TrEMBL record:
SUPFAM superfamilies assigned: Band 7/SPFH domain
UniProt xrefs under PROSITE patterns: BAND_7
Protein's UniProt name: Regulator of protease activity HflC (Stomatin/prohibitin superfamily)
Residues annotated as domain Band: 22-180
GO process annotations (BP): proteolysis
Keywords associated with the record: Hydrolase, Membrane, Protease, Transmembrane, Transmembrane helix
The UniProt record lists the keyword Transmembrane helix: yes
Organism listed in the record: Nocardioides marinisabuli
Length: 367
């Protein structure tokens, strides 16, 4: 009897546990549970603790309400220029109506995949290869518009469509690489040419500036050289003027006469004989008379007196010039020096006559 009661209690406890399990349903966050009563849709359970009628209500599906990402395998697509390319797509979608996603379509993921492939073939079929490779944004926009419109009645919203990869055939890849390499070589040549042009322009401008600076330097150098020559000529002329003035002053200080001119003539005679064309030089015996005639000829020269009477008036040369002392016996000493020079020249020219005169002179002195 006690064992029977124990078995009944265990069965009753198990029945209560099963009833509670069928009655209480916990739905996770961002999920939606579809409840059916006798195979017909009854309601949708929200996240949290929910109570259903056991053995009558049944949770058929639990729908994920979060945004889902589905990547489809590469699919061959033919472009307008009859080239086959493989395109990978990625779809971002979200279930907005769990009832429609449950009862309007059997498998909404497979339906989205097939719809994506057919729409993609339709869009890419109207483009050539180059346009397909460069128009990803346009393809994504058109594909999203078609998918969003078709999946709206399924309770699905397509948020974003991305082309993960577009792979052309290997031969097209090789051609594209060659074209890209040619374009890069062309750009490199263009950049090199532009660099050489800029270099040539800068070099020409530098040479121009250098030539301008050189010309300006030559002009300034010539101007400075001309100024230096002018100042040098001026200083040289001033020096020559001062030298002439000094010589003229010295002549006035020396008080020259006819005897001094005759003495200067005798000093110039050896220099006259030094010429290359003078092969023979004859000194006449009447050199004394010739010198006397020279002296008599010099008497007629204007401005040169026969004899000087006292010192002449000195030309004022300024306080820096030395003063020459005035002497009264200059005329006599100059005449005596000239006479002595004449006698020595006559003796050298005619030794016999000089000896005769020397023998006759004592007699005259004695008389």
């Amino acid at each position: 009897m006690g064992l029977a009661l124990l078995i009944v209690a265990a069965v009753l406890f198990l029945f209560i546990a099963v009833v509670l399990a069928k009655t209480i349903r916990i739905v996770p966050q961002a999920r939606a549970a579809i409840v059916e009563r006798f195979g017909k849709y009854k309601n949708t359970l929200s996240p949290g603790l929910n109570i259903v009628v056991p053995f009558i209500d049944k949770v058929r599906y639990v729908i994920d309400m979060r945004e889902q990402v589905v990547s489809f395998p590469p699919q061959p697509v033919i472009t307008e220029d009859n080239l086959v390319v493989s395109i990978d797509t990625v779809i971002y979608f979200q279930v907005t109506d769990p009832v429609a996603a449950t009862y309007e379509i059997a498998n909404y993921i497979q339906a989205v995949e097939q719809l994506t492939m057919t729409t993609l073939r339709n869009i890419v079929g109207g483009m050539d290869l180059e346009e397909t490779l460069t128009s990803r944004d346009e393809i994504n926009t058109r594909l999203r518009g078609v998918l969003d419109e078709a999946t709206g009645k399924w309770g699905i919203r397509v948020n974003r469509v991305e082309l993960k990869g577009i792979d052309p055939p290997p031969s097209i890849k090789d051609s594209m690489e060659k074209q890209m390499r040619a374009d890069r070589d062309k750009r490199a040549l263009i950049l090199t040419a532009e660099g050489e042009r800029q270099s040539a322009i800068l070099t020409a401008e530098g040479q121009k500036q250098s030539a301008i600076l050189t010309a300006e330097g030559d002009r300034e150098s010539q101007i400075l050289r001309a100024q230096a020559d002018r100042e040098s000529q001026i200083l040289r002329a001033q020096g020559e003027g001062q030298a002439i003035q000094t010589v003229f002053q010295a002549i006035h200080d020396g008080q020259p006469d006819q005897s001094l001119l005759a003495y200067q003539y005798l000093q110039m005679m050896p220099k006259i004989a030094e010429g290359d064309a003078n092969k023979v030089w004859i000194v006449p015996s009447e050199i004394g008379k010739a010198l006397e005639g020279l002296g008599s000829t010099m008497n007629d020269l204007k401005g040169i007196p026969q004899e000087v009477e006292g010192p002449l008036k000195r030309v004022d040369m300024g306080p820096s010039e030395p003063k020459v002392p005035e002497t009264g016996g200059t005329s006599g000493s100059s005449n005596a020096a000239v006479q002595a020079a004449i006698e020595e020249a006559a003796k050298a020219a005619n030794p016999g006559r000089a000896r005769a005169e020397s023998t006759e002179r004592p007699q005259g002195d004695a008389e």
